[in-house]
Specification:
Elements (H helix, E strand, L loop, with lengths): L1 E2 L25 E2 L10 H67 L7 H31 L1 H5 L5 H30 L3 H6 L1 H11 L1
Antiparallel strand pairs: 1-2
Helix pairs in contact: 1-2, 1-4, 2-4, 2-6, 4-6
Amino acid sequence: MKYCTECGHVLPKPIPKHCPDCGDKIRAVAGSGGDEKAPGWNSVRMRDRLLSGVLCGFLVLILGLIAFYPAIYWKQEEATGTQYYQYFTMFNKDLNELNSLDRQYTAMPLENATFTAKANAAGEYALKAKQALVTWGYLNSFIMQNEGALQSWNVSTMDSQSKIKSAKSGVQDKARAMASELEGFAAADQGRMTSIAGTLETLRGLGN
């Protein structure tokens, strides 16, 4: 019997020029008995096994990704939610400190004896507010970029952004009021105007 050296298929008689099974040009080898395997048989089996191994490996990879993707996605959402609450804790802390500084400023009368202390309180408020507004801007951007992930934490992104906007507006209004009050009192005294120039600049910058 003669076999195709490419696929191992038994060739019919008379021997064709091309294998009827794989179409390869015949390079037939004569067999010596019924039990003899076709030349190329081992190479064909190895090729099939290799292909099967690659396909199985690819299938295992796909199944692994399907199995682990939910866990990876949840870890990302968990990290996003944790970071959100850390940021909002900082936001509330900043707001409480600014409200405390505002009360200190408001409690002092604006007169010659208390002008320096009141100006210092305004300066402290201005510096804290400047830092807080930058942090709140980062928080607002974080919320916008992670709106989908935060929904799984039952976070209302609209409410959160509304709180930030309201707090920012309140700080800016207070800064404008402080600058106007201090400048109006010190306008007739060049020395006082010079001493509060830096504070006025920071307060006006917050109000813009």
